[in-house]
Amino acid sequence: MASGRYSAFRLLAEGLGGHRGWGRAWRDPAPKPAYDVVIIGGGGHGLASAYYLAKEHGIANVAVLERGAIGLGNTGRNTTIVRSNYLYPQNNRFYEKSLQLWEGLEQDLNFNVMMSQRGVLNLFHSDSQRDQYARRGNSMRLNGIDAELLDREQVRRLVPILDFDNARFPIYGGLLQKRGGTARHDAVAWGFARGADKYGVDIIQNCEVTSIRMTRGWVVGVETTRGYIAAKKIGIAVAGHTSHVASMAGLRLPVESHILQAFVSEGLKPLIDGVVTFGAGHFYMSQSDKGGLVFGGGLDGYNSYARRGNLPTVEHVWTEGVALIPALSRVRVLRQWAGVMDMTFDGSPLICKTPVEGLYLNGGWCYGGFKATPGSGWCFAHTIAKDAPHELNAAMTIERFRQGRTIDEKGAGPFPWLH
Ligand SMILES: Cc1cc2nc3c(=O)[nH]c(=O)nc-3n(C[C@H](O)[C@H](O)[C@H](O)COP(=O)(O)OP(=O)(O)OC[C@H]3O[C@@H](n4cnc5c(N)ncnc54)[C@H](O)[C@@H]3O)c2cc1C
After folding, report:
1. What is the rounded distance in angstroms from the CA atom of residue 365 to the CA atom of residue 351?
2. Which residue numbers in the chain have pLDDT < 50?
3. E-assigned strand segments in 140-194
4. Is 64 in the pocket of ligand 1 (CB under 6 A)?
5. Ligand 1 within 6 A of 51 CB?
6. What pLDDT does residue 72 have?
7. How many angstroms does the Cα of residue 74 sit away from the middle of ligand 1?
8. I need a surface site. Which of 13, 154, 375, 394 has the fewest CB within 10 A?
């Protein structure tokens, strides 16, 4: 039975009826022999792409093939930060579209993704860094995006727990995007899955793609652990496995897979309201609704597909946290995990056609793709449906690396040049 529409009234009625009326949030169909579009990867990006293909372009004969359970890749492993505070217009316009989609996502999907616009504050610690951040803020404002440059006292009023008086790297101020914030990561996968399913998209879990079949330069289908599935068009949205899956179609990409860790502390009383990032290193933190501090830093610094991470990085990340908030030295970390990042060399993503006809690529998200989830799905769906990019993703091609048109983002991460 389908899940029906969620509402406060329904919750009340189900509560009174012993919660026996809830159906599955999405079906569990067997794969059909053929589809118009097959999306490889059931993370947020793959599911969002399928949703917008059906909703915006009327293409619902679509399957999302996921090798495990949906949302257990990077979508369910990130630190949930959502923002559009990038420097270059090729990025900040795209991320702003994504942020606007986030702002209406719960109503659109009829699903609580716990979008919380609690603000994202990037701290600066020197005069030259202030100039850099002012430049980024100006670029944002020129593109219609909210940005405020705060001085030290304004930051102190916003986040008094930071070390202002005795800090190794004194805080000079911060760039604030009030509309930025956090969302619940796995709810986004579930919301898009439920939305896509309603349009008739098949979400097929435990179905790993093992090869891509081609005839005379065109894709014709995929071999999977659940048999062969024919497809007129195929979209790749596998994040850290981008190079691996693209190589099934003979593509060699300028993408490296790296490890990024995330951490959650024991539950604490309210400590910080929004998202805060350290400008003298690479550390970012927010506090979850349950009270745990959710934080992370830079990559582990070696190529791997293992989703564990190593201890020196744990120490490194925590050291930066303590430099920012000395009280953290007495906080216990309860959980730690890692995800596999698909790093491009300019820190910007790929949403594009590929040299193989009928094969489309969504990847290169580095460690910033969660915020992009709705915008990425929206643009990827457009690119697949029209066989041409939307103007928002027109620059996000593979060819940019060959043509010298890289989008060398210098906003708040990713920092591929550090690794
Ligand atoms: C620790 C950490 C912190 C992060 N913090 C942030 C943040 O705060 N803000 C932000 O914006 N971004 C952040 N990111 C990045 C963000 O999580 C990712 O960029 C984003 O979730 C990528 O989504 P996706 O749907 O492309 O990938 P995924 O969710 O990884 O989905 C890809 C799916 O493809 C599947 N797959 C792979 N190979 C195959 C195959 N052969 N056949 C079938 N399926 C396959 C995988 O199982 C996986 O489920 C962070 C990432 C990590 C790991």
Report:
1. 10
2. none
3. 148-151, 173-177, 181-182
4. no
5. no
6. 95
7. 3
8. 13
